[in-house]
């Protein structure tokens, strides 16, 4: 009994021979080229010191130039593990995540039928080739000539023509005594629904033969000559021989070219592949009218660990690229990925080669985007992230996509890359001082009058002290993050909002945002590279920092978390008070109404609540004229406002206060 047809081919496709062999040998780094799947090692089957054992990972075969041992992944497992054929198959299938189907007693019979179907399809290839030379194909030949295909290209790609008749191919094959079952089974004809003779699948079309990795003709793609035809391109139906989700156009020749060092290119259609091959890009393939499937992706990776997807620059092409990302993310492995070269809008590879030439196309290939860049582009392009909710939605979407990646190392690198891109998008922007109103439509960055003595003694004049307090507070926050970098991510938005007037603080903040919750030693190395060996030590040794409990106890994550939360809350409240005072000063150019004074008192109250401790002296409160308790900060804010109002009165302002 045998396994079902196609199972062993798929198993060999999914199994990386270099990984299988790599468990038993040590690769020679001087001779091996992992990127090309060209690996060399001392032979595991006989004693030797030189690396004469060769593995061609793309073709899936090994050969020893010393003892002449050769075979594929199955034979290697059989020889090295001393197991039988089925045990070797089960070992490889388990590693590839493929269930082993039950053995089929009719497997040989099915294999024989597949061979017969391939033979019938080969006859059809020859018949279509002959039809292209007839008078009925004059328009088809003219079209192919306009597309730049000369006689040599037609011969190379075996392009033919299906005349617009109902039983042309059917009658030709019946004349060679081919059974109805084989013609229908090869997808070359369809049974009549009216009880008549079966009719040809392809009529009035230019024909492109599709061959498998072994070079067998398994199906056809046909381009309609009638511009009104509903199906511009039509593929053979699925048969025992042809599964379009497991097939690629030009796969055999592309594999050979990739084995010689060319980068594998994935285009959308037959004409793109042909144009690429004619321009010298011989390692080119195309899926067959559908989005790339998981099986096709595994086939691509067997040929090249990082193929380049060259999709059309239209909406459909871009959608196909984005769908492919979702398919590929869970399948990524170390060294296996995709890159994307998007054609200019409205063009495909064939158009670009004709309009701009090989050099322009080569530059586009060299600038192909890694998949993580396209993932970021998909989630951010054309969107505005001007609110915390929108930023959070972006974070959630990206996190969900990254979690699809099964390989923990790749998942970690994707996370870091996304963090870097996010930092570039949301990095804090430098800003000048707050503008002050000077009349309708006029703005300046300087106050309109000199400060009065009352204003000089108010909280507004203490701005320098407020900045110094903020500087001290920032030092504590940064030191806490440096000692416990694992908490950075949960306070990321607060860290982004820090003002950081000190350039060193700004650099530390940016490094922490970029490199995130990494090991403390890694973060220290980044800081060392950016600011030198003494920067972190100087930060930690500042007196107000050194006495902070979480710095004295560097391993206490919870204490660091509480410290950062408290200091960020104080900082935010202080900034809120400062903003309200500046806005109040602007409003004083007009009527100083109760709304201004109420806003100031509320902002001062918030700052007071954020900074007040449990041991605060109750005498710190002042009782106002209406019996309300007012904190010292609120009182200072009132002093500021009243001093400014008095100053404006002294200048002759007659507005009511």
From TrEMBL:
Cofactor entry: Zn(2+)
Signal peptide: none
Alphabetically ordered keywords of this record: DNA replication, DNA-binding, DNA-directed RNA polymerase, Magnesium, Metal-binding, Nucleotidyltransferase, Primosome, Transcription, Transferase, Zinc, Zinc-finger
Cofactor note text: Binds 1 zinc ion per monomer.
GO biological process, one term: DNA replication, synthesis of primer
PROSITE patterns: TOPRIM
Zinc finger map (CHC2-type): 43-67
A single MF term (Gene Ontology): DNA binding
Any one Pfam family match given in the protein's UniProt record, by short name: Toprim_4
EC number: 2.7.7.101
Superkingdom to which the source organism belongs: Bacteria
NCBIfam families: dnaG (TIGR01391)
Comment text on domains: Contains an N-terminal zinc-binding domain, a central core domain that contains the primase activity, and a C-terminal DnaB-binding domain.
Family note: Belongs to the DnaG primase family.
Subunit structure: Monomer. Interacts with DnaB.
Summary of the function given for this chain in its UniProt record: RNA polymerase that catalyzes the synthesis of short RNA molecules used as primers for DNA polymerase during DNA replication.
Protein name: DNA primase
Species for this entry: Sulfitobacter noctilucicola
Name of the coding gene: dnaG
